[in-house]
Amino acid sequence: MSKSGLEFSVGDHVVYPAHGVGQIQEVETQEVAGYSLEVYVITFEHEKMTLRVPTKKAVTSGLRPLAANDVVTKALTTLKGRARVKRTMWSRRAQEYEAKINSGDLISIAEVVRDLHRAENQPEQSYSERQLYESALDRMAREVAAIEKIDRDAAVGILNKSLLVKTAVAA
User: Fold this and answer.
1) What is the fold, at CATH topology level, of the domain defined by 69-170?
2) C-alpha span between 63 and 33 (Å, rounded)
3) Which class is domain 13-65?
4) Percent share of the chain, pLDDT over 70
């Protein structure tokens, strides 16, 4: 908790499960149905979107600070692991992958990136596999970029290095 009694402060980078990394621009009070409601105003630059989350519901809505270094390390290690693809119908797996991406959990997102990653010598992905892979990679890269204070492309480079280690081990 900060000095103001709020969980987050203006300027903090935060992760909202369904949208990824955003930044708190301000804390404002709005009148809703005759009640005064304090909200975080969060902008998501990559989606050109602003979200207002009630401060009292921030944590229960899944809003969280950027991942700690040990979580990032674990996520990068997850990328190096062997893909675990269930033998279920694609539609079911796609739903599970989508749920993991929207969970906002960096390790779960890393699992999706790992499972859907294709090396040069592997068969092509379907359009929907590629979309989910790109979505997970982007979500993970944006958080790593915010943590490391680098741009998204540099973060993708870090993630690809971990994925290439996996490919070299598997070959």
Assistant:
1) Methane Monooxygenase Hydroxylase; Chain G, domain 1 (1.20.58)
2) 24
3) mainly beta
4) 94
